[in-house]
Amino acid sequence: MDGEGEDASKVIHVKFVTKLYPPFKAPVSSVVIPSNVTRLGLSSIVNSLLTLEKPEAFDFLIDGELIRMSLEQFLLAKGISAERTLEIEYIRAVAPRKEEKPSLHDDWVSAVDGSSPRFILTGCYDGLGRIWSSPGSCTHILEGHTGAISSVAFVNSQGGESVTVATASKDRTLRLFKVDTAESGDSTTRVRAYKILRGHKASVQSVVAEKHGSMVCSSSWDCTINLWNTDESESELSVSGKKRKGNNQAEEAQLEGEAVTTFVGHTQCVSSVVWPEEDVIYSCSWDHSVRRWDVPTGKDTLNLYCGKALNTVDVGGEGSALVAGGGSDPVLRVWDPRKPGTSAPVFQFSSHSSWISACKWHESSWFHLLSASYDGKIMLWDLRTAWPLSVIDTHKDKVLCADWWKGDSVVSGGADSNLRISSGISIS
To answer: Where does the NLE domain start and stop, copy by copy (predicted)?
Structure first.
């Protein structure tokens, strides 16, 4: 047991409980353990009770709060009496159990979307988008941009043999692609855009798709946010370069689209946008603000200021209402807009050592989110503790983007030109 050498003069009576199913369900009976046992010691005790063939890492909660110090210190800090039998809940530790083979690109991997359970979408500084069916297996290359890709998004990726993809680039345009996912064979299919979206006057920094619809939203260094239709019938043929011959493809005409609506209010680069509800868009900017926009009117209905240039924003957590953001310092901040009269964060996580490049809530958890940083690390967080649950440090340079994939994996890209997949993460 991990408790060798621990001072056993003080002991505590505890009962281990869990919502996990067999084989992770221990007998519910009181046991006596040393008071100064740590999380690793608790994990060792539960493993001995379970008699598992392969040891499993666990996390522990008392009254809904994760233990991140010795049991004795935790009880003292929380003012909990050790005289009674303590009920300690255990869950599977939130950490990757497998690192997949990296998928090498020709340049920095600047964007990733893991919202499709079947594919991973990446954007690269070589100006190409790529669709991956598994580690190392690139099925489609999306071509046409003349500058680095800064953001990518699946527009519709659920079911069917065709998916629509949007890419945003430093060449000031967005491109829309229709990808036939039923195409078989070992070779990689090159796809060109069916529609080019022009209108931004500077690099396009972020693109996000409407959840249940066919529109996309983009943000730019020109300080604006644009909404666009992805429907083919909503455009006219472009005049310049309307025909081009692709690899073994007949000549096709490309469409051009103009912005349906433009939101104005930010005073510097709008670095990230998210579209959590039909009528609500959130944005963050280098002007130090997070804004909430009412889509029908184009008015901003909320301003949160944090005093730092922001690179990334996401909305999720309890009631899908918490706003997470990060930028030009090592602090991941979480705001709750439902609390009136204050723009102060309700949580601040400070374990990174450089700027934060990405943050993302887990779609099925109130508590869990990830952050990525220029320090080369991805951290997995739980709102119930101030320390990261897990640190993924497989990248050998800055991490530029990260997302959840299939609920139990993290996909990430960085300045080491790799797409990395960390899998086997248990979120309970």
So the answer is: 12-75
Of 20, 101, 22, 153, which is closest to residue 423 (Cα–Cα)? 101
pTM score, two decimals?
Answer: 0.91
* Residue 198 is assigned to a structural domain of this protein: yes
Average pLDDT over residues 268-287: 97
Domain total in the chain: 2
Residue 263 shares a structural domain with residue 286:
yes
Residue given tokens 């005790």 in the structure block: 45
Whether residues 57 and 120 share a domain: the answer is: no
Mean pLDDT of all residues in the chain?
Answer: 91
Instruction: Give the whole-angstrom CA distance, residue 48 versus residue 248.
Output: 61
Peptide bond into 34 cis (omega under 30): no
Digit-coded pLDDT (tens) for 158-177? 666 789 999 999 999 999 99
- Tell me, yes or no, whether 78 and 199 share the same domain: no
Residue ending a domain, among 74, 92, 110, is: 92
Asked whether the beta carbons of 366 and 343 are under 8 A apart, the reply is: no
- The residue to which tokens 């249940």 are assigned: 212
Identify whether 1 is part of a domain: no
- List the single range of 7-11, 68-72, 413-417 with lowest mean pLDDT: 7-11
Integer Cα distance of 194 and 174 in angstroms: 11
CATH number of the domain that residue 152 is part of: 2.130.10.10
Sign of CA dihedral 255, 169, 335, 383: positive
Minimum mean pLDDT range among 50-64, 235-249, 331-345, 402-416: 235-249
Same-domain pairing of 86 and 137? no
Judge whether residue 361 has pLDDT over 80: yes
Query: Quick check: 203 and 221 in contact, CB under 8 A?
Result: yes
pLDDT of residue 401: 98
Do 156 and 305 belong together in one domain?
A: yes
One-letter amino acid at 263 equals F
Final residue belonging to a domain, choices 60, 92, 124: 92
State yes or no: pLDDT of 298 exceeds 80: yes
Q: What is the mean pLDDT of residues 378-405?
A: 97
Name the residue with tokens 């040891």.
55
The pair of structure tokens assigned to 152 is 């990518």
| Pairwise CA distance, residues 145 & 270, whole Å | 21
Task: Please work out, in degrees rounded to the nearest 5, the angle formed at the alpha carbon of residue 173 by the alpha carbons of 170 and 174.
Answer: 110
The whole-angstrom separation of Cα 308 and Cα 389 is: 25
Q: Which residues pair with 13 in a beta bridge?
A: 32
Q: Indicate whether 119 and 224 sit together in one domain.
A: yes
